[in-house]
Write the structure tokens for this entry.
Amino acid sequence: MPSLFRYATSVYGQSVLVGASWDLIWWFVGAGAAFILVHAVVKALTGRRAGALNRAR
Amino acid sequence: MRGDRVIRHQVADRVYHWTMAAALLVCLFTAFLPILGWKFEWVTTHWIAGIVLTAAILFHIVRAVVWQDFWAMVPGPRDLRSSWRFVARSLGLGAPPPQRDAKYSALQKCFHLLVAVVVLAIVATGLLMLSKIDTPFWRRNPYWLADSQWGSIYAIHGLGAMAVITLLMAHVYFALRPEKLWMTRSMFHGSISREDYLRHHDPQRWPVPEQAPDARANSGTAYSAGE
């Protein structure tokens, strides 16, 4: 699991938040792709089931 | 209504949509291509696209509040009831059929709300970040806020920008789905067929006049409660 944030060390030696971790880009892309895939599969399956029910009637 | 067609998106709204899309894509490409290894001078293009995006959103907010029905895009109790009926029927539980939508479906309203929150967060933090760069209009002042505050602002901007990638993928996916194309086309030419209007929308929740002169339909003014 990548870290959510990027940190740097200040001139005083303290850890300072500098922004979001760019390693997360691929997680967001993956989330989008996963959503599309799951939705497309569910729609294909429910569409096929609805078609079968209509033919049975 | 224009002949047998119903105006869904006025010209001003379509221009806004495509301006926002172009500005957002330029912002995303100029932000993420350098991170992915494609090095170029991206800052100027990025902040100019950000200003265009901000101006477009301000235009949209003013238009939605003053000239359009602001509440047409806000999820309400009917949307919750329809969504519950849809889910219950999908799971095989006994429930009446969901009501037809007003101008926008419950999912469209929720998606719009999500996009609004994310993009407004990006715009607000982006405007603050403008104080860290030199432009022809102002000189940079990076000491305006403390380092930790800048870190939080950059984190919100970055997380929001990455979330936009996911939202954009879902938006384009739904726009390209065959059963949604009737709606997608209206973002190009503005109207939907009367058959699609009656099939997908409840005329009581999104009333449009039976007959309207072409001049009125093309005037660019809102004329139905759902707009």
User: Anything to note?
Assistant: Chain A touches chain B through 21 residues (CB under 8 Å). The helical segments of chain A are 25-56. Chain A has a mean pLDDT of 88.
